[in-house]
Specification:
Elements: H1 4-16, H2 21-31, H3 39-61, H4 69-89, H5 98-119, H6 128-163, H7 168-190
Length: 194
């Protein structure tokens, strides 16, 4: 039986691996409208996503619900497009309180089912320790990705603000959201379940 470090490592590697591009793109979409000083609001949004995906992960792994893999794999990039479009819709007001957190939590429900499909092949026997350990790894990986994206966006804002004072965050968030949405649309088209 593998212990906590094993599943923490699997969770961390799963979320930070370039093969998990859909999850990476979603996290970039979550971070895109924020600045360093908005970290509290971003923490609320990221926590809501975590709660959503952890709930579905547990429900699917314990077989309390069953979800069709092709539909879930299609819906994951759809949530990325929706998150990016939400950024564009509220480009001048990213701190819109609980609404964004509820949206992230809802999308987390779908992403959790995707994690569960990956994990189902690894779990043999009791799932409590592997499930908690995997979630810890996922959260550590998300923290690394979110922090890295936030720092890169802060650097981009600094560079852009030299030429466009006061508008750097708006242009950067728009550009990042458009790139993420386009990439995710391509993924969704490749994963059509019908």
């Amino acid at each position: 039986m593998n212990g906590l470090p094993f599943y923490v490592g699997i969770g961390f590697r799963h979320i930070t691996n370039l093969a998990a591009l859909d999850h990476l793109l979603f996290l970039v979409a979550l971070v895109a409208p924020y600045r360093l000083r908005d970290w509290r609001q971003l923490l609320l949004v990221a926590t809501a996503f975590t709660v959503g995906h952890s709930l579905t992960l547990a429900l699917v792994l314990t077989r309390l619900i069953t979800l069709p893999t092709p539909v879930i794999e299609f819906l994951i990039p759809v949530t990325i497009v929706a998150a990016a479009l939400e950024n564009l819709r509220h480009i001048d007001a990213p701190r819109i309180g609980w609404r964004r957190a509820v949206l992230a939590g809802s999308f987390g429900l779908i992403h959790g089912a995707g994690f569960a499909n990956f994990l189902r092949t690894l779990f043999v026997g009791p799932i409590a320790l592997p499930l908690v350990s995997f979630n810890i790894g996922i959260e550590l990986g998300q923290l690394v990705i979110i922090t890295t994206a936030l720092l890169l966006f802060a650097a981009a804002d600094r560079i852009v603000s030299i030429r466009l004072p006061g508008r750097a965050r708006r242009y950067r968030a728009t550009a990042a959201s458009l790139v993420v949405a386009a990439w995710a649309l391509t993924m969704a088209a490749e994963r059509l379940p019908w």
